Amino acid sequence: MQRRKEQIGVGCADITEQEIRYVNEVLKTKRLSYGPFTQKFESGFAKLHGCKRALMVNSGTSALRIAVAALKEIHGWKDGDEIICPAVTFVASSNVIIMNGLEPVFADVSPQTYNLDPAEIEKHITKRTRAIMVVHLFGQPAEMDPIMKIARKYKLKVIEDSCETMFVKYKGKPVGSFGDISCFSTYVAHFIVTGVGGLAHDKDLTPKKFQKVVESRFKFLRLGYSFRATEMESALGLAQLERKDDIVRRRKYNAKYFLKKLKKFEKYLQLPTWPKYSDHAFMMFPIVVKEGVPFKRNELIMHLELANIETRDMVPLINQPVYIKRYGNLEKNFPVSKWINHNGFYIGTHQMIEEKDLEYVVKAFEEFFAKKNIC
Ligand SMILES: Cc1ncc(COP(=O)(O)O)c(C=O)c1O
Predict the structure, then answer these.
(1) Which domain covers residue 356, as residue numbers?
(2) Which of 177, 190, 213, 223 is the most exposed place for a label (fewest CB within 10 A)?
(3) Boundary (domain end) residue, out of 186, 207, 242
(4) 115 lines ligand 1 (CB under 6 A)
């Protein structure tokens, strides 16, 4: 198999004439800060996720940071209060809890969906638990019914970290419409890509509540943040929002192609699954190498990378040096997370991956298994 020159990456910048038109409009009108593009992008995005209003900021991390800060202030949480957080997620979900003076308390994830396992939550609830940080990883909604039931039972707030998941529903309700506040990212490799960017929204948002915390114009009631995005990011976002159905359709097509063609390796690889009542928008295509197979995950990763197919680990958190330093060896308490950390990786499914690229990726897998003589 000949190595291709152009990488098949995990993300893309899909810039069409519409993005160029909208950004040019911003430049011509000379209105760079909060204006009509941001207003349209925020309200269009919020509506699609069952919310009244969204707030565009400069990253998903910023959105999460102010979401936790707002809940802490509104509900009078004290430093050291706890938030349940999945043991597999991008570091930002947990970092923002610590940055707000609170404590992340980890819970293991499901071995099928890799999202927070509802059965693992209750044993971690203490008198100081205030909220659950639910993360919808890789484009797949978490199990919201049982999670919301636990939240109601213990009167906990719910923050949805939906940075990796947009435009999909769980039992007919869109991600982002379950929790008290939900956050999204429009950083490169996400569904909508604006370079940098994020959105936070609250389903009962009123000017008095959330906006008061983050937008008190020239009335500095508290120490605040500067997390603004510009009209240019919103112009990019709006153009992509207008063709989001096409973006999601193409990602699902690519993922279904991989599912079909890689099925023959299921003895060795765990491919994505999702329940009938839910959906998967495939921000990525996660794969976990099964136990006891005659090769190491990193051999397969190296084979793909050498073929110029980009891979990423499946957002390991608790084995990050900064977390080991803070909490010691957490992996021993979270067997599923440990398995994912050491055996999981993902490849891209984005809309710019074409038929010939899909064939190339599958060939690379076939070549690996042929070389190993196990197919
Ligand atoms: C689950 C999750 N949360 C939060 C973030 C942070 O978003 P950003 O990179 O826009 O700060 C990411 C980013 O990829 C993410 O995957």
Answers:
(1) 244-371
(2) 223
(3) 242
(4) no
Co-location of 84 and 162 in the same domain: yes
Query: The dihedral of CA 140, 321, 323, 223: what is its sign?
Result: negative
Q: Is the CB of 316 under 6 A from ligand 1?
A: no
User: What pLDDT, on the 0 to 100 scale, is given for residue 257?
Assistant: 98
Three-class DSSP category at 284: strand
Same-domain status, 99 and 188? yes
Tell me the pTM. 0.95
Same domain, yes or no, for 190 and 293? no
Boundary residue ending a domain (213, 242, 271)? 242
Count of domains observed in the chain: 2
Any ligand 1 atom below 6 A from CB of 160: no
Task: Verify that 133 and 211 share a domain, yes or no.
Answer: yes
DSSP character at residue 79: T
Cα–Cα distance for residue pair 88/288, rounded to 1 Å = 13
- Report pLDDT digits (tens) over 111-157: 999 999 999 999 999 999 999 999 999 999 999 999 999 999 999 99
From the CA of 64, give the closest atom in ligand 1. 4
Cβ-defined contacts of 5-9 (< 8 Å, 24+): 5/308, 6/308, 7/308, 7/309, 7/310, 8/308, 8/309, 8/310, 8/347, 8/348, 8/353, 8/357, 8/360, 8/361, 9/189, 9/310, 9/348, 9/350
Is residue 359, in this structure, part of any structural domain at all? yes
SS3 65: helix
CB 83 within 8 A of CB 72: no
Which ligand 1 atom minimizes the distance to the CA of 185? Answer: 10
Q: Which two tokens stand for residue 281?
A: 């928008």
